[in-house]
Amino acid sequence: MSLSAGLAQLRPAFSAAFCMTHSCAGTPRTRRQGGIAMMEFLIVALPLLGIGMGSVEFAHWQLTRQAVDHAMMEAAREGAVTNGDPVAMRRRFDAALLPLFGGGTSSETLSEAAARMAARSARIESETGVPAMRLEVLGPGRSSFADFADPALNAQFGRRTINNDYLAEAHARDVQRGWPEGRGPSSGQDRFDANQLRLRLTYLHAPMLPGLRALMKSLSSDETAKTDDAYATQARARAGMLVMTREFTTMMQSHPVEWEVETYRAAWGAAQIGDAPVANTVVGALGELPGACGAGACLPGSSPTIPSTSTPWTPPTSPGVVQAGDPACGISVCCAPA
């Protein structure tokens, strides 16, 4: 047999062996394994891509929440020293939130960040039909002012106002005039409750992850039957927004003033004023002062006694004036004898 004839006989065997390990068009093995590598890549890559994008979305959410928390704390602190002024709180909130939009160290860069923040709010309002955030004032509420408003301060501020001076002494006077544990008949609160500024902010967050907004839109129809919060439901249904709710409570360091809800809405876009009583759990012995000394002033080491009068003690007409017979005399306020 010639060499060429022998090679011709071996050629089919070599071809079959080659096609078992390489791609050969038209062979059964090629038809069975075509696209396997692509399928394996998709099986591995798609979950990894989803995890990566989800991590970015989660980091964006956390960063936004931290920035909103800080801005809300700054707004509440500003309200505590400005009689709860809605305009002052919003101005401080915006200033504290600027780092989320780039911030800056000069007036030019700060103005650019403020413009980006305003553009973001305008875009969300255009997409959802509601303001980009809503402020709820949980306290003090209307019944708080009904119980504790000071007539002299009402005239000074032009609105019902709660006196923030000498809370422990004022609480003792409330107990003295017959209010159980110093709690007002309308609110069920004591003066410590009524002097707490309690705020809740609902902040609309636009997700970055593709498809998440469409998912939120599809779920909003089922959610409508489960909630009466039209603000949040509308934001989800129209634009697939994620709703972030943050609360902050601080003790007032100035006299709380009852601002109209229209004033809050003008400053915050959307606002509500609640009136839910809050049970106080921190007054304890400090707020339950025992009474006054019979002579109006106490010597060191003497024991105070609660005066026995048929007429309940009433606050003075001018804030800060201490009267003889005040239940706080000799306890934590120096009073001259009558």
Automatic annotation (TrEMBL):
It comes from the Bacteria. It comes from Pigmentiphaga aceris. This is Pilus assembly protein. It holds the Pfam family TadE. Residues 35-77 form the TadE-like domain.
